What we know:
Blueprint: E1 9-18, E2 24-33, E3 47-52, E4 75-81, E5 92-95, E6 101-105, E7 108-114, E8 118-121, E9 132-133, E10 137-142, E11 165-171, E12 175-176, E13 182-183, E14 192-195, E15 201-205, E16 208-214, E17 218-222
Parallel strand pairs: 2-6
Antiparallel strand pairs: 1-2, 3-4, 3-7, 4-5, 5-8, 6-7, 8-9, 10-11, 10-16, 11-14, 12-13, 14-17, 15-16
Amino acid sequence: MQATAFAGANVSSKRVAVASGRRCSHVVRAAVAVPAQFKAVKPVGDRVLVKVDQEERASTGGVLLPTVAQTKQTAGSIVAAGDVSLVKSGDRVVYSKYAGTDVQVAGDEHVLLKEEDVIGVLPSGDKISTMKPLGDRVLIKCAEAEKKTAGGVLLASDSGDKPNFGTVVAVGEGKKAEDGAQVKPNVAVGATVMYSKYSGTEYEEEDVQYIVVRESDILAALA
């Protein structure tokens, strides 16, 4: 696939799917380069400017990865904020993978996001387990997949159904009602809940699976 060059923009490609054989599909996103004479970018409305973490360019074994194999970062630090209420400058955040506008400021990668697209704040380094989810989002520690069938047959790691339930680790402050009041999600920390199978954003930390879902994606409490 051939990328089209845009004046004043840095064009990068990212692999999103691999077709049969050796063909692969790419999505092209243009990072708008802010002209050198402008030294600051001030987000307007409910937007924030996030300085994106550097992409991982080597495998755990130290092998340099080709561009198409690198994972697009979805974490960084807020360097400027507009009219927002849930986050502030200096916060280290994670955000939705396909959200925002990529911007290059003084050669560094940034992204302009709506506050709504910020999934959570990381108050303790990079630990997903300490994430403070925003809005009506809920952080869940996923249940482990069954390793054996009911008859005792050992399952391959990719053959079992992935569980769609887990334990609530943290709950956001909720969404604003029409009168401006904050309505907290009706979910308690420590509860075991079932959530929609294809919802949320998944993370892995020290072989533990986590997922952040909206309150509306929680189907039931289990007891």
